[in-house]
Design goal:
- It is a single chain.
- By secondary structure, the protein is α/β, with parallel strands linked by helices.
- It has two domains: 100 residues, 3-Layer(aba) Sandwich (Rossmann fold), CATH 3.40.50.170; 93 residues, Formyl transferase, N-terminal domain (Rossmann fold, 3-Layer(aba) Sandwich).
- The strands form two sheets. The chain has a seven-stranded mixed sheet with strand order 3-2-1-4-5-6-7, with helices on both faces.
- Helix 1 runs parallel beside helix 6.
- The chain is globular, with a radius of gyration of 16 Å.
- It binds 5-O-phosphono-beta-D-ribofuranosylamine (GRF).
- 5-O-phosphono-beta-D-ribofuranosylamine (GRF) binds next to helix 1, strand 5 and helix 6.
- The site of 5-O-phosphono-beta-D-ribofuranosylamine (GRF) has 15 residues, from helix 1, strand 5 and helix 6.
Length: 199
């Protein structure tokens, strides 16, 4: 299966996928990595793995609509079976969802529907939950609202700060991402309403 990964940052989730794809039995390979900004470590990880990259900064386009069109076209060039947002910090638009809405996954660093948005671990800590985690889901038009594929729970420890909690979540998140994407590409999936079925 062909995977395009979208990133905005360090790319540790991307790296976990790149490492998994080295095994032919995994059933997938990362055919391109896209970003919304230059100069991020994740792009270097892609290049080091010999994977082509493209960068589409929102501010390079006259409107969000034109950015959405360009991003959709650049992803489509690589004919992905699956598109994975791994720390991609932009909400895609209607054209992207029309093209890839049945195959666009995102990983979020809380147990949704609790604490959506970009400060998940910080918000979970501030609320005082004792259990949080990571959620893998298919993206829909909302913010962190799409049909859930899998979740993994992670404890909040008494002496956690935002950084220690974020790191503990990311370890579990990477494992879940690799396992579940492997399962999806090997077995296929259907999305019916909010329900994701993997045969
Ligand atoms: C992940 O924890 C994701 O849930 C959050 O950003 C992080 C991405 O990290 N939105 P990385 O770039 O894969 O290291």
């Amino acid at each position: 299966a062909r995977i395009v990964v979208l990133i905005s940052g360090s790319g540790s989730n991307l790296q976990a996928l790149l490492d998994a794809c080295v095994d032919p039995g995994y059933g997938a390979r990362v055919v391109a990595v896209g970003a919304d900004r230059d100069g991020i470590a994740g792009l270097d990880r892609a290049t080091a793995a010999g994977v082509p990259v493209f960068v589409d900064p929102l501010r390079s386009y006259p409107s969000r609509d034109e950015w959405d069109r360009a991003l959709t076209a650049h992803v489509a060039e690589h004919q992905p079976d699956l598109v994975v947002s791994a720390g991609f910090l932009k909400l895609v638009g209607p054209q992207f969802l029309a093209a890839f809405g049945d195959r666009y996954l995102n990983t979020h660093n809380t147990l949704l529907p609790a604490f959506p948005g970009i400060h998940g671990p910080r918000d979970a800590l501030a609320y005082g939950v004792k259990l949080t985690g990571a959620t893998l889901f298919f993206v829909d038009a909302g913010v962190d609202t799409g049909p859930i594929v899998a979740q993994v729970a992670v404890p909040v420890l008494d002496d956690d700060d935002e950084e220690t909690l974020t790191e503990r979540i990311k370890e579990a998140e990477r494992r879940q991402l690799v396992e579940q994407i492997g399962r999806l590409v090997r077995e296929g999936w259907t999305i019916t309403g909010r329900k994701v079925t993997i045969p």
